[in-house]
Specification:
Helices cover 60% and strands 16% of the residues. With 367 residues, it is α+β, with helices and mostly antiparallel strands.
């Protein structure tokens, strides 16, 4: 019972400062952004709900900077106040170990890291894309239906798709499809055309498909032949293994992909060599960034308990220096990883690794 009461007390004392820091930092971010965007909002007569949605879509800045900063400063403030009131000393004197005292703080850090990781894979890519298109449209409402053209090449299958029109929200319905199959030596073997294509039951179905075959010199072998025996028909195409998600991924900018989409994009297009180190680094960074919430908490708890006897001003400067050092090391890792000067995973995880080791060393001294 005493342990549960201690957890509830620490969480109550901890979550309030974290929430206040989160609200304050986000308000500062919005005010700073408004200095840049307000003239355009007024010129375009952007509605208030669209402005709210635009700033709600800035989830990347929340995950990357605001949430870790809020946890870090909230942890330091909570421990500084508990130390000033001699509550930390009382807990230790009553038999509560330092490791046990860290548990509620680390639980919050781990939970928010997992939540950030989930946001990275679900809401963040779509939110970033919408915000970028909204800004490109000069903060005016975006058209409802989005259609795109797509040219997709699968090097593993030696096959190129050309799609005249498709909606990325309904990628299983294609209009104006051409599929060119190549031989292993790169020469054209056949060209399949269809008015429409649908992806049903994990298979492609082509409407009124025709095929034009070519010889080794890439000269047509007769006229195009219909694949439908009785004229117009819908024909199953089991040999075409590409998925609708591949076209959506290919039609998006790299930064708007989820981590899973990035990994598949690199897997199905191994011929990509331009910016390959940067792309591999981006994949690792997407996985590493959310864990900054746990890492800064792990570091802030022993740092905060050691600094609880210092003055508030000294604590603020120390906290800013520590937090700045974390992102400075992370930027060094990013520089090395993106340029191929070290392994992409090491560049992305460098800040987390260094400060986790420093946190373990500080925690060992604080026991």
């Amino acid at each position: 019972m005493r342990v549960k009461l201690l957890d509830r007390y620490l969480l109550r004392e901890y979550l309030a400062p974290v929430f206040y820091c989160l609200a304050a930092f986000y308000m500062v971010f919005i005010v700073y952004s408004l200095f840049r965007d307000l003239p355009q909002f007024l010129e375009s007569q952007t509605s208030f709900p669209l402005i709210l949605r635009y700033y709600a879509c800035q989830v990347e800045y929340v995950v990357r900077f605001i949430l870790p900063a809020s946890l870090f400063f909230g942890t330091l403030y909570t421990l500084w106040r508990l130390g000033r009131n001699n509550e930390l000393t009382a807990m230790r004197a009553s038999g509560v170990s330092f490791t046990r005292m860290m548990a509620p703080f680390l639980l919050v850090g781990a939970a928010l890291s997992l939540a950030s990781l989930a946001l990275n894979e679900t809401a963040m890519p779509a939110a970033k894309e919408w915000a970028a298109e909204f800004m490109k449209n000069r903060f005016r409402p975006l058209p409802g239906a989005r259609t795109r053209i797509c040219k997709f090449y699968s090097s593993a299958k030696h096959r190129e798709w050309t799609i005249d029109r498709f909606n990325p929200d309904l990628p299983g319905e294609l209009v104006g499809v051409k599929v060119e199959q190549e031989r292993p030596d790169g020469t054209r073997a056949e060209l399949i055309t269809a008015d429409r294509a649908e992806y049903l039951d994990e298979q492609w179905w082509f409407h009124n498909p025709k095929v034009q075959r070519f010889d080794a010199n890439q000269d047509p072998l007769g006229a195009p032949e219909s694949l439908a025996p009785d004229g117009y028909a819908v024909i199953e195409m089991p040999a075409l293994t590409e998925r609708p998600a591949d076209f959506v991924t290919h039609s998006k900018a790299w930064e708007f992909l989820s981590t899973a989409e990035m990994i598949r994009h690199l897997a199905i297009q191994p011929e990509i060599t331009q910016d390959l180190s940067r792309r591999r680094f981006d994949v690792q960074q997407r996985l590493a960034l959310p864990w900054a919430c746990l890492v800064v908490t792990l570091f802030a708890v022993p740092a905060g308990s050691r600094g609880s006897r210092r003055s508030a001003l000294a604590g603020i400067f120390t906290a800013m220096a520590l937090f700045g050092s974390f992102y400075a090391v992370s930027q060094v890792g990013a520089f090395l990883g993106m340029r191929g000067l070290t392994w992409p995973w090491l560049g992305a995880w460098l800040g987390n690794i260094v400060f986790s080791l420093a946190a373990v060393a500080l925690a060992s001294e604080s026991r």
